[in-house]
Amino acid sequence: MAHVLAGRRGAVSFLVLRECIFGILLLAMAWVDWKKRIIPNGLLLAGIINWAAWTYLLGGFDKRALCVVVVSAIIPSCVLILVLFLEKRKGCLMMGGGDVKLMFVMSLYMDWLLLLRGLLVASVFGVAVFMVLRKGKDEAFPFGPFLAAGYLVACCLGSQWPKGM
What we know:
Shape: globular
Helix content: over 70%
Number of helices: 7
Low-confidence stretches: 1-7
Number of strands: 0
């Protein structure tokens, strides 16, 4: 989406500001999720409002930008369906609703490919830390901090990923 808005004078610096605000919100969400095992809806809503306000200020909701958002929003929907299916099959909670909502908010800020890459990074980090820190098999483990880390890695790498990823 950055390339869509970058043609406008000053838009790149505004995009950086938008991303910094969302980064601060992500850090807050990750911290709360790590400490309390919940991602507050107020912070998620702040992320949506941040995206909507900056998108409007930077030229509005054009057809291409909305198409990117819709396609990117399909990923959290598919993850939710998969998780619900697996939870029903196993009979236990596997992923909280806050994690899926966080993926939706992240989909507003990045295209589907970066979102998938961020989800891959989050999953690898999350599994590695879970394997090291887990005390009991049934203990709840927050995934929000790893989603935030995956988002930040995906944003920092952008299109500079190793071949095949």
